[in-house]
Structure formats: structure tokens, C-alpha cells
């Protein structure tokens, strides 16, 4: 009997601890995400939620001739996937990025456009962390890529390693 009471108490404590740990969305009644603490990483107009920490070994940034940056960064943190995607959609929109495509699933992705730049955000929720990859690149002008029948195909150079 004493063993059953101990197991029951342990289950109750675990349930209470889990309910106190809120990994879910903190949206308000209007559906807008609650203001969350963010920081700016390599890209000055892309706020990253504070819970997401940069995984430096996956960072590859180049500086374009016009002073803009392009490249990729990977982040991970203990954040629920849909909450992260809602926060990024809200944060990017607040910085003038226009959403162009959204896909939500086990691996979610969003594409944004701002001026002469495009941003791709993908995120996957794991057992302990959510991983988010951010890609930023300049848009390619219409007609800049020619078909095989065309004169040439222009692609930017491949970034190898960490150019920073």
C-alpha cells in the first residue's frame, strides 16, 4: 500500500511540474503573439527569440558589395514549433518582411521578401529542442538565369566553411 501511495505522489508531482513548465504558445485572445524578448544575430532586421541560441558551427555569412549580408545560421532552443513559427512570422512582419509562402508540418518553413532580399526559415521540433535554420540571400533578377539554350547560367559562388 505504501508503494502505491509513493508512486501516486510521484505521478502527481511530475504532473504538477509539467503543467508549470509552459512550452506552449503565449498568444493573447486576439491571436497575436505576446511580446517576447528577442535579439539580433547576424542579420540586423531579423529578430530571433531569446530562447533560440545560435549554433555557430553552421553559420556562413558573406558581405555583398552593396553592404548587405547573405548566408545561413542555425539556432536551437526549447521552444514549441508552432509557437516559434508564429513568433517568427510576427517578428519578421514587424521588420517589414513580407510573407510569401508558409508551410506548417513536422518540418515547417516560411519564405519572406524584403526589398532585394529573400529569407527562408525552416524549423523542426525534436525530442528536446527545436532547430531553426535561417537563410538570407539577394533576389535574382528575372532573366538572370538562362536556360540551357541561353547564353550562360549565372550562379553565385558556393560558400565553403565559415567565411567569418
Basic shape: globular
CA-CA gap between termini: 63 Å
Write the element-wise H/E pattern from the N-terminal end onward.
Answer: HEEEEEHEEEE
User: Main β-sheet, in a few words?
Assistant: 7 strands, antiparallel
CA radius of gyration is 21 Å
Give the CATH class of one domain. Answer: Alpha Beta
- % residues in beta strands: 25-35%
CATH architectural grouping of one domain: 2-Layer Sandwich
Helix segment tally: 2
* Poorly predicted segments: 7-32
Mean pLDDT: 78
Task: Report what the structure shows.
The chain contains two helices and nine strands; from the N terminus they run αβββββαββββ. With 164 residues, the protein is α+β, with helices and mostly antiparallel strands. It has a domain at 38-138: TATA-Binding Protein (2-Layer Sandwich), CATH 3.30.310. Strands 3, 4, 5, 6, 7, 8 and 9 form a seven-stranded antiparallel sheet that branches. A hairpin with a 2-residue loop joins strand 7 (107-114) and strand 8 (117-125). The longest helix has 19 residues, at 2-20. The radius of gyration is 21 Å and the shape is globular. The chain starts with a helix and ends in a 26-residue tail after the last strand. Residues 7-32 have low confidence and may be disordered.
Amino acid at each position: 500500500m505504501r508503494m502505491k501511495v509513493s508512486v501516486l505522489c510521484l505521478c502527481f508531482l511530475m504532473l504538477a511540474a509539467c503543467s508549470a513548465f509552459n512550452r506552449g504558445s503565449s498568444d493573447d485572445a486576439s491571436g497575436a503573439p505576446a511580446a517576447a524578448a528577442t535579439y539580433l544575430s547576424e542579420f540586423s532586421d531579423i529578430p530571433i527569440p531569446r530562447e533560440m541560441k545560435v549554433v555557430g558551427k553552421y553559420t556562413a555569412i558573406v558581405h555583398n558589395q552593396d553592404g548587405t549580408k547573405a548566408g545561413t545560421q542555425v539556432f536551437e532552443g526549447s521552444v514549441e514549433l508552432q509557437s516559434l513559427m508564429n513568433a517568427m512570422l510576427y517578428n519578421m512582419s514587424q521588420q517589414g518582411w513580407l510573407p510569401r509562402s508558409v508551410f506548417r508540418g513536422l518540418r515547417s518553413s516560411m519564405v519572406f521578401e524584403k526589398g532585394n532580399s529573400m529569407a527562408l526559415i525552416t524549423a523542426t521540433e525534436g525530442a528536446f529542442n527545436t532547430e531553426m535554420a535561417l537563410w538570407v540571400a539577394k533576389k535574382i533578377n528575372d532573366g538572370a538565369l538562362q536556360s540551357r539554350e541561353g547564353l550562360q547560367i549565372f550562379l553565385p559562388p558556393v560558400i565553403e566553411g565559415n567565411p567569418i
